[in-house]
Amino acid sequence: MVAKKISVFIPALMLFISLSGTVAHADDTATQPFNPNYKYTNGVGNLTVWLNYSRGVDLWENYITSSVNNWMYTGWSNPVYMTFVNSNYGSNLDFHSNSLSWFTGPGTLAVTWHFINGTCLNPNYINAPTSSWYYAEIHICDDNFLSDSFSNSAAHGTVRHEIGHALRLKHNNTNPNSIMCQHGAGRVVQTVQYTDNLAVVNLY
Question: Which end of the chain is least crowded, N or C, by CB within 10 Å?
């Protein structure tokens, strides 16, 4: 059940070092946004994060806290700053966990929805949000995260990927060195990369 929000809250990339000592990035092209006109309404400099412990999300707390820190401290400057709060009243990023039957596809690892004034902007989560949003929800699939074939590293990468969606980034399946490349599309990294960091800098 989705609790309506009230919008009153004010709210590693692999480095290749040449013999000259200069640093070149594996990909200097920024990951793309859903839509350059839509974003978090209050920016990303003071996002509050809430964990829905009543739905068992504490199983994934380590992955979530690590992923939040990875987005704030990527190794390159960016405007992202997030703090954890004890209530979802006015929070900007909520984490939930659900059984496999809650999701539309058996291979779904997690989904991200975007909301403004209690209205979901992408109820079919494959679609892009249709306007700017005040908060986002990330839903983790318990059954798939608990699978013996799903590694801890991939779980961390999945949560970081979903946070990227919450921040505004779409899939980057042509670049396996982007956290926004899907797990099933050959992603070879599990941390936020320069291309993803650059996207958020450009957007916010």
Answer: N
Determine if residue 21 is left, alpha or beta; phi over 0 gives left, psi from -120 to 50 gives alpha, anything else beta. left
Kindly report the average pLDDT of the chain as a whole number.
85
Q: Which helix (H) or strand (E) holds 49?
A: strand 47-51
What pLDDT, in 10s, does the model give residues 34-78?
Answer: 777 889 999 999 999 999 999 899 999 999 999 999 999 999 999
Provide the H-helix boundaries in the chain.
61-72, 142-145, 152-167, 194-203
Q: Which pair of structure tokens corresponds to residue 146? A: 């608990």
Computed from CA positions of residues 118, 124, 125, 131, in that sequence, does the dihedral angle turn out positive or negative? negative
> HSE (CB half, 13 Å, CA atoms) of 17?
1
**pLDDT range class, residue 191, cuts 50, 70, 90:** very high
User: How far is 136 from 108, CA to CA, in rounded Å?
Assistant: 18
Distance in angstroms (rounded) separating the CA atoms of residues 192 and 175: 13
Structure tokens at 187: 């992603």
User: Taking the alpha carbons of 86, 91, 92, 94 in that order, is the dihedral positive or negative?
Assistant: positive
